[in-house]
Design a protein that fits this description.
The protein is mostly helical. It has 3 helices and no strands.
Amino acid sequence: MNSILEDNHSTEHSDNIINYSLIRNMLRSIGTQHWSVLKAMDEYDIPADQRDIYMETIADKFFVS
C-alpha cells in the first residue's frame, strides 16, 4: 500500500508502520498551534520507541532543506 512506510533501517523499528494521517495532523498542529515537532509528538501520544522513525519520516518527506 502506498500510504504506509515500513522502516527497514533497524530491526528495532522493523515492525512499525508510519501513520501518515497522524503525521499530517501533527504537521497541521505544528503550523496552527506553533508547536515544535517534539510537542506535537507529545500531544499525539507517539510512543517513545517510535519517535525516531516519525522524526526521520517527517524530516525526509515533509520538510525542505
